Amino acid sequence: MDKRRCTILKSEELWNQAKQLFAGGVNSPVRASVKPYPFFTERGKGAYIYTVDGKKLIDYVLGYGPLILGHSPDSVKIKIAEQLEKGWLFGTPTELEIKLARKITSHIPSAQKVRFVNSGTEATMAAIRLARGYTNRNKILKFSGNYHGAHDYGLVEAGSAATEYNVATSKGVPYEIINTIEICEYNDIQCVDKKLRKEDIAAVIMEPVMGNAGVILPEREFLSGIRELTKSYNSLLIFDEVITGFRVSIGGAQSLYQIYPDITTLGKIIGGGLPIGAIVGKAEIIENFTPSGKVFNAGTFNAHPLSMVAGIATIEELEKEYPYIIANKAAKILVEEIERMIKIKHTINHISSMFQIFFGVDQVKNYSDAKRANKEYYMKLHEMLLKEEVFIPPSQYETIFTSASHTDDIINNTLNKLKKVIGELN
Protein backbone atom coordinates (compact mmCIF):
# COMPACT_ATOMS: atom_id res chain seq x y z
CA MET A 1 0.00 0.00 0.00
CA ASP A 2 1.51 3.35 -0.99
CA LYS A 3 2.21 6.14 1.51
CA ARG A 4 -0.56 8.37 0.15
CA ARG A 5 -3.19 5.67 0.65
CA CYS A 6 -2.04 5.09 4.24
CA THR A 7 -2.36 8.78 5.14
CA ILE A 8 -5.80 9.13 3.58
CA LEU A 9 -7.03 6.22 5.69
CA LYS A 10 -6.39 8.14 8.92
CA SER A 11 -9.51 10.31 8.68
CA GLU A 12 -11.44 7.53 6.99
CA GLU A 13 -10.66 5.11 9.80
CA LEU A 14 -11.64 7.67 12.44
CA TRP A 15 -14.84 8.38 10.53
CA ASN A 16 -15.77 4.72 10.51
CA GLN A 17 -15.24 4.60 14.28
CA ALA A 18 -17.20 7.82 14.81
CA LYS A 19 -20.23 6.48 12.93
CA GLN A 20 -20.44 3.64 15.43
CA LEU A 21 -20.43 6.03 18.39
CA PHE A 22 -22.26 9.22 17.37
CA ALA A 23 -25.53 10.03 15.60
CA GLY A 24 -24.53 10.59 11.98
CA GLY A 25 -20.91 10.21 13.05
CA VAL A 26 -20.61 13.71 14.53
CA ASN A 27 -21.53 15.85 17.52
CA SER A 28 -22.70 18.86 15.48
CA PRO A 29 -24.43 18.27 12.13
CA VAL A 30 -22.49 20.65 9.86
CA ARG A 31 -19.32 18.66 10.54
CA ALA A 32 -20.76 15.79 8.50
CA SER A 33 -21.19 18.02 5.44
CA VAL A 34 -17.61 17.52 4.23
CA LYS A 35 -17.71 14.74 1.61
CA PRO A 36 -17.06 11.86 1.26
CA TYR A 37 -16.29 12.05 4.99
CA PRO A 38 -15.01 14.75 7.36
CA PHE A 39 -11.31 15.30 7.78
CA PHE A 40 -10.15 15.06 11.39
CA THR A 41 -8.08 17.93 12.75
CA GLU A 42 -4.92 17.37 14.75
CA ARG A 43 -4.01 20.97 15.60
CA GLY A 44 -4.37 24.59 14.54
CA LYS A 45 -2.01 27.54 14.45
CA GLY A 46 -2.57 30.99 13.02
CA ALA A 47 -4.60 30.80 9.81
CA TYR A 48 -4.03 27.07 9.41
CA ILE A 49 -5.47 23.81 10.63
CA TYR A 50 -3.48 20.60 10.31
CA THR A 51 -5.28 17.33 9.66
CA VAL A 52 -4.41 13.82 10.83
CA ASP A 53 -3.81 13.07 7.13
CA GLY A 54 -0.86 15.45 7.02
CA LYS A 55 -2.63 18.31 5.21
CA LYS A 56 -2.19 22.00 6.04
CA LEU A 57 -5.40 23.89 5.29
CA ILE A 58 -5.91 27.66 5.11
CA ASP A 59 -8.88 28.04 7.43
CA TYR A 60 -11.78 30.41 6.69
CA VAL A 61 -14.19 28.65 9.07
CA LEU A 62 -12.28 29.55 12.24
CA GLY A 63 -14.43 27.43 14.54
CA TYR A 64 -17.52 29.05 12.93
CA GLY A 65 -16.52 32.50 14.12
CA PRO A 66 -14.85 32.62 17.55
CA LEU A 67 -11.22 32.65 16.40
CA ILE A 68 -10.84 36.27 15.34
CA LEU A 69 -7.14 36.14 16.29
CA GLY A 70 -6.60 32.86 14.47
CA HIS A 71 -5.75 29.48 15.98
CA SER A 72 -3.87 29.16 19.25
CA PRO A 73 -2.61 32.76 19.59
CA ASP A 74 0.23 32.92 22.12
CA SER A 75 -1.35 35.80 24.05
CA VAL A 76 -4.41 33.66 24.83
CA LYS A 77 -2.60 30.34 25.22
CA ILE A 78 -0.28 31.76 27.89
CA LYS A 79 -3.20 33.01 29.99
CA ILE A 80 -5.00 29.67 29.75
CA ALA A 81 -1.84 27.84 30.80
CA GLU A 82 -1.39 30.17 33.78
CA GLN A 83 -4.95 29.52 34.91
CA LEU A 84 -4.53 25.75 34.53
CA GLU A 85 -1.79 25.91 37.16
CA LYS A 86 -4.27 27.56 39.56
CA GLY A 87 -7.22 25.27 38.84
CA TRP A 88 -10.10 25.27 36.38
CA LEU A 89 -13.36 24.82 38.30
CA PHE A 90 -14.31 26.03 41.76
CA GLY A 91 -18.09 26.48 42.00
CA THR A 92 -17.43 29.90 43.54
CA PRO A 93 -17.09 33.41 42.11
CA THR A 94 -13.68 34.52 40.82
CA GLU A 95 -12.28 37.94 40.06
CA LEU A 96 -11.90 36.82 36.44
CA GLU A 97 -15.64 37.05 35.78
CA ILE A 98 -15.64 40.65 37.03
CA LYS A 99 -12.73 41.52 34.74
CA LEU A 100 -14.38 40.02 31.65
CA ALA A 101 -17.74 41.60 32.46
CA ARG A 102 -16.04 45.00 32.75
CA LYS A 103 -14.42 44.47 29.35
CA ILE A 104 -17.79 43.62 27.80
CA THR A 105 -19.73 46.48 29.42
CA SER A 106 -17.02 48.95 28.42
CA HIS A 107 -17.43 48.07 24.72
CA ILE A 108 -21.02 46.90 24.13
CA PRO A 109 -23.07 50.12 24.32
CA SER A 110 -26.29 48.61 25.71
CA ALA A 111 -24.59 46.36 28.29
CA GLN A 112 -24.98 47.50 31.88
CA LYS A 113 -25.08 44.10 33.58
CA VAL A 114 -24.05 40.58 32.56
CA ARG A 115 -25.05 36.96 33.17
CA PHE A 116 -22.51 34.42 31.93
CA VAL A 117 -23.61 31.03 30.61
CA ASN A 118 -21.88 28.36 28.53
CA SER A 119 -22.96 28.79 24.90
CA GLY A 120 -24.86 30.98 22.50
CA THR A 121 -27.74 28.53 22.73
CA GLU A 122 -27.93 28.95 26.50
CA ALA A 123 -27.70 32.72 26.11
CA THR A 124 -30.67 33.06 23.73
CA MET A 125 -32.72 30.52 25.68
CA ALA A 126 -32.20 32.49 28.89
CA ALA A 127 -32.75 35.84 27.14
CA ILE A 128 -36.15 34.69 25.85
CA ARG A 129 -37.14 33.46 29.31
CA LEU A 130 -35.95 36.77 30.78
CA ALA A 131 -37.99 38.80 28.28
CA ARG A 132 -41.13 36.80 29.05
CA GLY A 133 -40.60 37.13 32.77
CA TYR A 134 -39.95 40.85 32.57
CA THR A 135 -42.91 41.71 30.32
CA ASN A 136 -45.39 39.08 31.55
CA ARG A 137 -46.09 38.25 27.90
CA ASN A 138 -45.63 34.85 26.27
CA LYS A 139 -45.01 35.42 22.56
CA ILE A 140 -41.71 36.01 20.78
CA LEU A 141 -41.23 37.45 17.29
CA LYS A 142 -38.29 36.11 15.30
CA PHE A 143 -37.20 36.24 11.67
CA SER A 144 -37.22 33.44 9.16
CA GLY A 145 -33.68 32.14 8.75
CA ASN A 146 -32.32 33.68 11.94
CA TYR A 147 -30.61 31.01 14.03
CA HIS A 148 -30.75 31.43 17.80
CA GLY A 149 -29.32 28.15 18.97
CA ALA A 150 -30.38 24.54 19.34
CA HIS A 151 -33.24 24.92 21.83
CA ASP A 152 -36.97 24.60 21.19
CA TYR A 153 -37.71 28.31 20.84
CA GLY A 154 -34.73 28.83 18.54
CA LEU A 155 -35.47 25.98 16.16
CA VAL A 156 -38.50 27.48 14.42
CA GLU A 157 -37.50 28.40 10.84
CA ALA A 158 -33.91 28.52 11.97
CA GLY A 159 -31.61 29.17 9.02
CA SER A 160 -29.02 26.49 8.32
CA ALA A 161 -30.43 24.32 11.10
CA ALA A 162 -33.65 23.97 9.12
CA THR A 163 -32.59 24.27 5.50
CA GLU A 164 -29.75 21.76 5.43
CA TYR A 165 -32.02 19.05 6.80
CA ASN A 166 -35.17 19.98 4.91
CA VAL A 167 -37.29 20.81 7.96
CA ALA A 168 -38.87 24.17 8.80
CA THR A 169 -38.80 23.28 12.49
CA SER A 170 -37.02 20.43 14.27
CA LYS A 171 -39.04 17.37 15.15
CA GLY A 172 -39.59 17.16 18.88
CA VAL A 173 -40.51 20.83 19.31
CA PRO A 174 -44.05 20.89 20.81
CA TYR A 175 -46.81 22.70 18.92
CA GLU A 176 -47.50 24.60 22.14
CA ILE A 177 -44.08 26.20 21.82
CA ILE A 178 -44.34 26.76 18.06
CA ASN A 179 -47.60 28.62 18.69
CA THR A 180 -45.78 31.12 20.91
CA ILE A 181 -43.45 32.13 18.07
CA GLU A 182 -44.42 34.69 15.42
CA ILE A 183 -42.37 34.83 12.21
CA CYS A 184 -41.52 37.68 9.85
CA GLU A 185 -39.21 37.80 6.84
CA TYR A 186 -35.96 39.62 7.50
CA ASN A 187 -35.97 43.23 6.24
CA ASP A 188 -39.82 43.32 6.24
CA ILE A 189 -40.67 46.14 8.63
CA GLN A 190 -44.36 46.10 7.69
CA CYS A 191 -44.69 42.55 8.96
CA VAL A 192 -43.07 43.55 12.26
CA ASP A 193 -45.50 46.43 12.67
CA LYS A 194 -48.49 44.15 11.98
CA LYS A 195 -47.34 41.51 14.50
CA LEU A 196 -46.50 43.99 17.27
CA ARG A 197 -49.85 45.79 16.99
CA LYS A 198 -51.50 42.93 18.91
CA GLU A 199 -49.37 43.95 21.92
CA ASP A 200 -48.81 40.38 23.09
CA ILE A 201 -45.17 40.09 21.97
CA ALA A 202 -42.69 39.91 24.85
CA ALA A 203 -39.69 40.53 22.60
CA VAL A 204 -38.37 40.66 19.09
CA ILE A 205 -35.23 38.54 18.86
CA MET A 206 -33.03 38.99 15.82
CA GLU A 207 -29.56 38.78 14.37
CA PRO A 208 -28.67 42.39 13.47
CA VAL A 209 -26.63 40.79 10.70
CA MET A 210 -27.76 37.32 9.68
CA GLY A 211 -24.97 34.77 9.87
CA ASN A 212 -26.68 31.40 9.63
CA ALA A 213 -28.37 31.76 6.27
CA GLY A 214 -25.16 32.97 4.79
CA VAL A 215 -24.38 36.63 5.49
CA ILE A 216 -27.46 38.85 5.08
CA LEU A 217 -27.33 42.54 5.94
CA PRO A 218 -30.11 44.72 7.33
CA GLU A 219 -31.51 47.23 4.87
CA ARG A 220 -31.35 50.92 5.68
CA GLU A 221 -33.89 51.88 8.37
CA PHE A 222 -34.79 48.24 9.16
CA LEU A 223 -33.02 48.09 12.52
CA SER A 224 -34.03 51.62 13.51
CA GLY A 225 -37.62 50.87 12.50
CA ILE A 226 -37.72 47.79 14.72
CA ARG A 227 -36.22 49.73 17.60
CA GLU A 228 -38.95 52.35 17.35
CA LEU A 229 -41.75 49.82 16.98
CA THR A 230 -40.66 47.74 19.97
CA LYS A 231 -40.62 50.87 22.10
CA SER A 232 -44.04 51.92 20.83
CA TYR A 233 -45.63 48.56 21.65
CA ASN A 234 -43.74 47.94 24.91
CA SER A 235 -41.91 44.91 23.59
CA LEU A 236 -38.26 44.26 24.29
CA LEU A 237 -35.64 44.12 21.54
CA ILE A 238 -33.07 41.33 21.75
CA PHE A 239 -30.01 41.44 19.51
CA ASP A 240 -28.44 38.03 19.03
CA GLU A 241 -24.82 39.10 18.61
CA VAL A 242 -23.30 35.68 19.25
CA ILE A 243 -21.64 35.96 15.82
CA THR A 244 -21.38 39.73 15.36
CA GLY A 245 -20.38 40.68 18.91
CA PHE A 246 -16.71 41.80 18.87
CA ARG A 247 -16.57 40.60 15.23
CA VAL A 248 -18.02 43.37 13.04
CA SER A 249 -16.60 45.92 15.49
CA ILE A 250 -15.40 45.92 19.07
CA GLY A 251 -18.84 47.20 20.05
CA GLY A 252 -20.69 44.70 17.89
CA ALA A 253 -23.32 45.42 15.25
CA GLN A 254 -25.21 47.69 17.65
CA SER A 255 -22.20 49.99 17.82
CA LEU A 256 -21.69 49.85 14.06
CA TYR A 257 -25.33 50.69 13.29
CA GLN A 258 -25.89 52.77 16.44
CA ILE A 259 -29.09 50.91 17.31
CA TYR A 260 -29.21 49.79 20.93
CA PRO A 261 -31.35 46.85 22.09
CA ASP A 262 -32.70 46.09 25.55
CA ILE A 263 -30.95 42.71 25.74
CA THR A 264 -27.97 41.34 23.82
CA THR A 265 -26.76 37.76 23.64
CA LEU A 266 -23.05 37.14 23.15
CA GLY A 267 -20.80 34.11 22.69
CA LYS A 268 -17.99 32.87 20.44
CA ILE A 269 -15.34 35.64 20.52
CA ILE A 270 -15.89 36.62 24.18
CA GLY A 271 -14.58 33.17 25.16
CA GLY A 272 -11.56 33.25 22.89
CA GLY A 273 -12.51 29.88 21.41
CA LEU A 274 -13.61 28.26 24.68
CA PRO A 275 -17.30 27.53 25.47
CA ILE A 276 -19.16 30.64 26.61
CA GLY A 277 -22.35 32.66 26.33
CA ALA A 278 -23.60 35.84 27.93
CA ILE A 279 -26.83 37.76 28.34
CA VAL A 280 -26.19 41.48 28.74
CA GLY A 281 -28.46 44.51 28.82
CA LYS A 282 -30.15 47.13 30.89
CA ALA A 283 -29.53 46.68 34.61
CA GLU A 284 -33.24 46.77 35.48
CA ILE A 285 -33.85 43.86 33.09
CA ILE A 286 -30.82 41.68 33.90
CA GLU A 287 -31.59 42.07 37.62
CA ASN A 288 -34.65 39.86 37.04
CA PHE A 289 -32.39 36.80 36.94
CA THR A 290 -32.14 34.81 40.15
CA PRO A 291 -31.08 35.37 42.87
CA SER A 292 -32.11 39.05 42.68
CA GLY A 293 -35.21 38.32 40.58
CA LYS A 294 -37.57 35.48 39.78
CA VAL A 295 -36.37 34.40 36.32
CA PHE A 296 -34.32 31.29 37.02
CA ASN A 297 -30.88 30.74 35.54
CA ALA A 298 -28.02 28.70 36.96
CA GLY A 299 -25.10 26.59 35.74
CA THR A 300 -22.21 24.66 37.23
CA PHE A 301 -19.95 25.95 34.47
CA ASN A 302 -21.29 29.52 34.27
CA ALA A 303 -18.34 31.95 34.25
CA HIS A 304 -15.87 29.08 33.84
CA PRO A 305 -12.38 30.33 34.77
CA LEU A 306 -10.72 29.10 31.56
CA SER A 307 -13.33 30.79 29.37
CA MET A 308 -12.98 33.98 31.41
CA VAL A 309 -9.19 34.22 30.98
CA ALA A 310 -9.38 33.34 27.27
CA GLY A 311 -12.04 36.02 26.76
CA ILE A 312 -10.09 38.67 28.64
CA ALA A 313 -6.92 37.92 26.69
CA THR A 314 -8.77 37.98 23.35
CA ILE A 315 -10.49 41.30 24.02
CA GLU A 316 -7.18 42.81 25.19
CA GLU A 317 -5.77 42.01 21.76
CA LEU A 318 -8.84 43.43 20.02
CA GLU A 319 -8.42 46.66 21.96
CA LYS A 320 -5.09 47.12 20.16
CA GLU A 321 -7.11 47.42 16.89
CA TYR A 322 -4.64 45.53 14.68
CA PRO A 323 -6.84 42.37 14.53
CA TYR A 324 -9.65 44.34 12.90
CA ILE A 325 -7.31 46.06 10.47
CA ILE A 326 -5.82 42.76 9.27
CA ALA A 327 -9.02 40.69 9.28
CA ASN A 328 -11.18 43.33 7.59
CA LYS A 329 -8.52 44.03 4.96
CA ALA A 330 -8.26 40.31 4.22
CA ALA A 331 -12.00 39.95 3.71
CA LYS A 332 -12.19 43.09 1.58
CA ILE A 333 -9.42 41.91 -0.76
CA LEU A 334 -10.94 38.43 -1.07
CA VAL A 335 -14.40 39.81 -1.87
CA GLU A 336 -13.10 42.30 -4.44
CA GLU A 337 -10.97 39.71 -6.20
CA ILE A 338 -13.64 37.00 -6.12
CA GLU A 339 -16.07 39.49 -7.67
CA ARG A 340 -13.61 39.97 -10.53
CA MET A 341 -13.05 36.24 -10.96
CA ILE A 342 -16.63 34.97 -11.01
CA LYS A 343 -18.25 35.49 -14.40
CA ILE A 344 -21.49 33.61 -13.79
CA LYS A 345 -24.53 35.07 -12.03
CA HIS A 346 -23.88 35.58 -8.31
CA THR A 347 -23.85 38.01 -5.42
CA ILE A 348 -21.54 38.40 -2.42
CA ASN A 349 -22.73 39.79 0.91
CA HIS A 350 -19.95 41.26 3.03
CA ILE A 351 -19.41 43.14 6.28
CA SER A 352 -16.13 43.60 8.18
CA SER A 353 -14.47 40.15 8.37
CA MET A 354 -17.56 38.18 7.31
CA PHE A 355 -18.82 37.30 3.82
CA GLN A 356 -20.63 34.68 1.79
CA ILE A 357 -21.01 33.91 -1.92
CA PHE A 358 -24.42 33.10 -3.40
CA PHE A 359 -24.55 31.64 -6.92
CA GLY A 360 -27.45 32.03 -9.34
CA VAL A 361 -29.05 35.09 -7.72
CA ASP A 362 -28.64 38.85 -8.09
CA GLN A 363 -29.31 39.72 -4.46
CA VAL A 364 -29.89 38.11 -1.08
CA LYS A 365 -31.85 40.29 1.32
CA ASN A 366 -33.69 37.60 3.28
CA TYR A 367 -33.95 33.87 3.90
CA SER A 368 -36.19 33.29 0.88
CA ASP A 369 -33.55 34.85 -1.38
CA ALA A 370 -30.84 32.70 0.23
CA LYS A 371 -32.81 29.52 -0.39
CA ARG A 372 -33.04 30.37 -4.10
CA ALA A 373 -29.25 30.42 -4.42
CA ASN A 374 -27.58 27.46 -6.09
CA LYS A 375 -26.18 25.70 -3.04
CA GLU A 376 -24.96 22.76 -5.13
CA TYR A 377 -22.66 25.15 -6.98
CA TYR A 378 -21.42 26.57 -3.69
CA MET A 379 -20.70 23.06 -2.40
CA LYS A 380 -18.75 22.36 -5.58
CA LEU A 381 -16.66 25.45 -4.81
CA HIS A 382 -16.12 24.17 -1.26
CA GLU A 383 -15.05 20.73 -2.48
CA MET A 384 -12.68 22.07 -5.13
CA LEU A 385 -11.07 24.51 -2.70
CA LEU A 386 -10.62 21.75 -0.14
CA LYS A 387 -8.60 19.81 -2.70
CA GLU A 388 -6.43 22.93 -2.98
CA GLU A 389 -6.09 22.95 0.83
CA VAL A 390 -8.41 25.91 1.45
CA PHE A 391 -11.23 25.30 3.93
CA ILE A 392 -14.43 27.34 3.60
CA PRO A 393 -17.68 26.33 5.38
CA PRO A 394 -19.25 23.13 4.02
CA SER A 395 -22.64 24.87 3.87
CA GLN A 396 -24.16 27.65 1.78
CA TYR A 397 -25.86 28.88 4.94
CA GLU A 398 -22.76 29.54 7.04
CA THR A 399 -20.27 32.41 7.01
CA ILE A 400 -16.75 32.72 5.61
CA PHE A 401 -14.56 34.42 8.23
CA THR A 402 -11.13 36.01 8.20
CA SER A 403 -8.88 36.67 11.20
CA ALA A 404 -5.86 38.63 12.38
CA SER A 405 -3.76 35.70 11.18
CA HIS A 406 -4.87 36.10 7.54
CA THR A 407 -1.93 38.22 6.48
CA ASP A 408 -1.12 39.38 2.95
CA ASP A 409 0.95 36.31 2.05
CA ILE A 410 -1.85 33.96 3.08
CA ILE A 411 -4.43 35.99 1.17
CA ASN A 412 -2.23 36.02 -1.95
CA ASN A 413 -1.83 32.25 -1.69
CA THR A 414 -5.59 31.87 -1.32
CA LEU A 415 -6.22 34.07 -4.35
CA ASN A 416 -3.96 31.92 -6.50
CA LYS A 417 -5.91 28.85 -5.50
CA LEU A 418 -9.24 30.65 -6.01
CA LYS A 419 -8.20 31.74 -9.48
CA LYS A 420 -7.57 28.13 -10.47
CA VAL A 421 -10.81 26.81 -8.93
CA ILE A 422 -13.13 29.59 -10.11
CA GLY A 423 -11.63 29.36 -13.57
CA GLU A 424 -12.91 25.80 -13.73
CA LEU A 425 -16.33 26.78 -12.32
CA ASN A 426 -17.05 29.67 -14.71
Quick structural summary:
The chain is of the alpha/beta class and 426 residues long.
The CATH topology of the largest domain is Aspartate Aminotransferase, domain 2
The domain tally reads 2
CATH architecture of the largest domain: 3-Layer(aba) Sandwich
Q: Calculate the terminal CA-CA distance, rounded to whole Å.
A: 37 Å
Number of H- or I-type helical stretches:
15
Instruction: Please report which band the strand proportion falls in: under 5%, 5-15%, 15-25%, 25-35%, 35-45% or over 45%.
Output: 15-25%
Shape assignment:
globular
Judged by helices, strands and strand pairing, the structural class is alpha/beta
How would you portray this structure in words?
Helix 2 packs antiparallel against helix 11, helix 3 (95-107) runs parallel beside helix 11 and helix 14 (375-387) packs across helix 15. The chain folds into two domains: 3-72 and 321-425, Aspartate Aminotransferase, domain 1 (Alpha-Beta Complex), CATH 3.90.1150.10; 74-318, Type I PLP-dependent aspartate aminotransferase-like (Major domain) (Aspartate Aminotransferase, domain 2). It is α/β, with parallel strands linked by helices. The protein starts with a helix and ends with a helix. The chain is 40% helix and 15% strand. A seven-stranded mixed beta sheet has the order 4-10-9-8-7-5-6, with helices on both faces. The model is unreliable at 1-7 (pLDDT under 50). The chain is globular, with a radius of gyration of 21 Å.
